[in-house]
Amino acid sequence: MYAPLPIDPREALEEIATFQRKLAAGLANLRGLGEPAYANTPREAVYREDKLTVWHMRGEREPTARTPTLIVYALVNTVWMTDLQPDRSLVRNLLAQGEDVYLIEWGYPDGADRWLTLDDYLNGYLDRCVDAVRRRHGLEAVNLLGICQGGSFALCYAAMHPEKVRNLVTMVTPVDFRTPDNMLSHWVQDMDVDLFVDTLGNVPAELMNWVYLTLKPLRLTQQKYVAMVDILDDPAELENFLRMERWIFDSPDQAGEAFREFIKDFYQGNKLVRGTLAIGGRPVDLGLVTQPVLNIYAEQDHLVPPDASRALGRHVGTTDYTEQAFKGGHIGIYVSGRAQREVAPAIHRWLRDRD
Amino acid sequence: MADPAGDFLSNYRALAQQAWDTWARSWAQSAAPAAQPAASAADPLARGGAALAGFLDWLRSAALQLPSASPGQWPPAWDAGQPFLQAFAGLDQHGAHGFAQQWQQWLQAMQQGGLADPRQPLAPLGYTREQQLQQQALYEAMQAYLQAAARYQSLLQRVAAQGAERLQAQLAQRAENGQSPQSLKALYDLWVDAYEEAYAEIALSDEFRAVYGAMVNAQMRVRQLQRQQTEHWCRELGMPTRSEVDSLGQRLQAMRRQVTALQRQLDAAREAAPAAAAPAGPRPSARKATRKAAAGKAAAVAKRPLRKPAAAAAARGTARGAKRRK
Hints:
The complex is a heterodimer.
Chain A: H1 9-30, E1 43-49, E2 52-57, E3 69-72, H2 90-97, E4 101-105, H3 118-137, E5 142-147, H4 149-160, E6 165-171, H5 183-188, H6 193-200, H7 205-213, H8 217-229, H9 235-249, H10 256-268, H11 271-274, E7 278-279, E8 282-283, E9 293-298, H12 306-310, H13 312-315, E10 321-326, H14 332-335, H15 337-352
Parallel strand pairs in A: 3-4, 3-5, 5-6, 6-9, 9-10
Antiparallel strand pairs in A: 1-2, 2-4, 7-8
Chain B: H1 4-31, H2 44-65, H3 82-95, H4 99-112, H5 129-176, H6 184-203, H7 206-236, H8 242-276, H9 284-295, H10 297-303, H11 309-316
């Protein structure tokens, strides 16, 4: 079964030459560029502990929301995806809508953090971050906005400390970790996680990045750089590209014990939906999440398949559950043009109705 | 008598090779500064450069085959799966930190250090018996890893074969619909689609899951045994080992949890103190209110006097800046 190719060899040669010329001319633009800055929305550190910082984000207008929203990001990669650049910033868009936004920057674990458990992260760090925000506002409960693994954390936290969470927003959040299309989950099922963590200690960020790249090896290691050549002569686009590169590869190591628990209990045991999860001895029952929940998932998410997120609706205890699909991928939900128009306004409307 | 078709083919190939050589020279010059020791896999230029070199290799290979393409045969000789395997090989080299190369260096170092060649094991004897056993275990673990890695590679080979079949099928379908790719770039995009689809199908198979798990586990076993040997030498030299540092860290973290729990108890006791210090003999209604306040612990947390965050952090002695904070 072979097919003819109607590509004229002379035109093909010219195509190669054109590509080479474009590349040669554009390479100069790539040299000497500084580290692209993130949006750097004005912010104030309101709580620090070990390597984490809670930032209060400042908008151009005073917040109209009475209840502040604390963004809980994943331990993989950094929270600055939510504030990547001025015109692609979930944080800025939420502030512009009148929300009062805080976020947790987890920092970069090192050897001293190797024994941090999920209990330390959720009933320790996260709980104290929530308390810090509650104290600033004199409130019994705040809103949580959990992203990806941070969404799973926010769900667990809400189940364990329901009195401190007023509303819960989850974005691209895995809940059912064993859906058939979840490639990451598929790959770790036969892994001896104890041996893995006992050997490596903290899990190096480079190793995590390697795994992510191998999910789509040709697209992520070659095709996107081929596409980059087309924007080498556009300084603004090139800076955007390099900023995303920075975010992708400037990622923290994973604290060994927390990683061990997360893989065993969430990915392998799928305990969050089986109702058998316990963190620090406290049972985590999604049925106890009775706060209003907004669950936003991405339709083309290759890291957290839609079914993995949508499962929340079947397990959460609340009667006020809203599910919203976004046309895009795991990253596009923060940085695409569509995301700027749709995501923050949707979150704001939902929160405003429950403030 | 001259053969016009043959002349064209020769000229075309010569031109294509010339264009390639020219580009390769210019790339080498442009990329030279990035090849300094400071450059790493995290350097976008170095990484992107490898990707672009792979792409240009692909272009050249595809273009060289074009003149030979005929309706019944394309590609005639080009192994379209090879660029896929090369892309993966490059990724593995960075991601696994050249694990196989590391092993070779390790083996050589062991031999240069006067240790027995573990590839020719004898029954362990004498003073170094335990060390011999460790070396043997390490060697066997590495053999297990190499076997697992070979199974993984064979799956990637299967992706390469199935990717080629998918590409051919897509080209045939497009030809029937009059939508054949009109440029090398369009052909490249189709090639990527075909191989990614083939890869995803195999990567989600049970066989891949088992092989992947076995490879990771085998590599971890090797790393663990290497570490044990390294620690043995470190102890002989009086150097602290990773295991010792880990033990200290584990104990320290356990103590921090205890301190945190005690701090919580202390905070709760402080909150309860004003109630206990209330004037003796309160009226019955006031006693009731005091009991209520003590019972409503959760509510009390929210109602207690607010401490300024900076002061709270200082009180805990926790306002330590992260080294890599940005």
